[in-house]
Amino acid sequence: MVENQSQLTRIRRMRSGLPALSAVVVLDSKFDAAAEGGPADDLQVYSYPQIAKLGTDALAIDSTLIEREIDAATGGDCATIIFTSGTTGEPKGVMLSHTNFLHQVEGVPTLVDVGPGDAWPCVLPVWHSFERIMQYVALGTASALAYSKPVSKIMLHDFQAVRPTWLASVPRIWDALKAGIYRNVASQSPVKRALFNFFVSVSSAHAHLG
Q1: How confident is the model at residue 187 (pLDDT cuts 50, 70, 90)?
Q2: How many helical (H) and strand (E) elements, i.e. helices and strands, does the chain have?
Q3: CA distance 49 to 38
Q4: Helix, strand, coil shares of the chain as percentages rounded to 5?
Q5: What's the average model confidence in pLDDT over 190-200?
Q6: What is the mean pLDDT of residues 166-177?
Q7: Is the pLDDT assigned to residue 28 strictly greater than 70?
Q8: SS3 label, residue 86
Q9: What residues form DSSP beta bridges with 145?
Q10: Quick one: pLDDT at residue 29?
Q11: What is the helix (H) or strand (E) element at residue 81, kind and residue range?
């Protein structure tokens, strides 16, 4: 599955090194598979609407197809492949099983009190490995997801609107969030600043002594 025509062109250029590749799905809604005009080879190229129609047609013939496929899967089957960034070496495709994800869906709620009525703002990319885990946890606990952006000004505005109970993120996002909060506090009255600093010191003592 590729994003657009440009990515499809790149795949075609390396086709000789991908002997097992037989089909490509292009997600771009503007992509026209019929007018794609690629080389005459055995590579099947589909637009996303074409794939959706194939699924609709298959279910019209066999309405239990999806349920049977789900029942045929095992916990050890590969659920996804997440690729490392390559910043510390050659990129690697990490194969994660269904059991891997489900173990976390079951285990995280035993560590944190999350459940129906809670809200999670999503600020990491949806394909980020940590973000995917926490989104599955949110779905598994019947809590809500609210999509935002990793920009402090936007996040803080969304937090006021959503009033989240949990946030799963990486250190860089926490640093940006903290900086935004302290900038806002600095513009408040001396009384508000004093109250804020007092409760920060109380919470720090609680975290240290607890």
Answers
A1: very high
A2: 8, 6
A3: 19
A4: 50, 15, 35
A5: 95
A6: 84
A7: yes
A8: coil
A9: 120
A10: 86
A11: strand 78-83
